[in-house]
Write a structure and sequence with these properties.
The protein is of the alpha/beta class and about 260 residues long. About 50% of the residues lie in helices and about 15% in strands. Strands 3-2-1-4-5-6-7 form a 7-stranded parallel sheet, sandwiched between helices. The mean pLDDT is about 90.
Length: about 260
């Protein structure tokens, strides 16, 4: 997968982790970039490094996607671009393992806006140009959490489920148009995502075995392979694939019992 002439890729949440890995990989393939995030110093350092290494153009937008004005301004910027070939809706965050009512309503609303509304608005903004050119790809980053109603992560699993179902439905609608949609559903990945929630990564980031945590580069490689193969739902890693299949096969009552028995820090 390489960029066509003057093609641009948009990556949200590009400051670190999976978003930064996407930015690096797409830059290496010759795409100009529009990257967004909240941590200016890290994002600008990444942009400068990519410009120096690959000679591409990188536009940096510092945006808080939970903020209605920032999100709408970013959508307007994307809608104004005629050469967007890839959109990666990656921005997201977690609230830690806490009961729904123990968390502030404002935090739940922010998650809804960042995960669901930003994905909706930016997809809506990018689609007209892609459809006009009969070419383009939109990768919406969901999670293996989209496949199960996780207690103490109610909003996280619900919003990731929205991304998954939205992506699948849209992919069916857009068959034959030249525009491809993917729901990327990673499991545990070695980023700063969990550490920023105060979660003990030593407990979850296993280096070996079936529950080994993947690297951001491994997740991106899996995503791009799935995109090339035309797969709408991409679950990187064999253990994650088995886990998501199991959650769909189990009777819901049994799944509820198993999930209720899980104990987290």
């Amino acid at each position: 997968m390489t960029a066509t002439s003057a093609a641009t890729a948009v990556v949200t949440g590009a400051t670190s982790g999976i978003g930064a890995a996407f930015a690096r990989r797409l830059a290496a393939q010759g795409y100009h970039l529009l990257v967004t995030g909240r941590r200016r110093e890290q994002l600008e350092a990444l942009a400068n490094a990519l410009v120096a290494q690959y000679g591409i153009n990188v536009d940096v937008i510092i945006a808080e996607l939970a903020d209605d004005a920032d999100r709408s301004q970013l959508a307007a910027r994307v809608a104004g671009l005629s050469d967007v070939e890839i959109l990666v809706n990656n921005a997201g965050f977690g609230l830690g393992a806490r009961e729904f009512y123990a968390q502030a309503l404002s935090d739940h609303v922010a998650m809804l806006k960042v995960h669901a509304l930003a994905t909706l608005q930016l997809t809506y903004a990018a689609l007209p140009a892609m459809l006009a050119r009969q070419r383009g790809s939109i990768i919406n980053v969901a999670s293996v959490a989209a496949f199960a109603p996780l207690p103490r992560h109610a909003m996280y699993s619900a919003t990731k489920d929205f991304i998954l179902t939205f992506s699948e439905a849209l992919a069916i609608e857009l068959r034959g148009t030249g525009v491809h949609i993917q729901a990327l559903c990673p499991g545990f990945t070695r980023t700063d995502f969990h550490a920023r929630q105060g979660i003990d990564t030593n407990r979850y980031y296993r280096s070996h075995g079936p529950l080994r945590a993947m690297t951001p580069d491994e997740v991106v490689s899996a995503s791009l392979r799935c995109l090339k193969g035309g797969h709408v739902v991409c679950v990187p890693g064999l253990s994650n694939q088995l886990l998501t299949h199991l959650t769909r096969l189990l009777p819901r009552r049994l799944l509820y019992r198993l999930l209720a028995a899980v104990r987290e820090p």
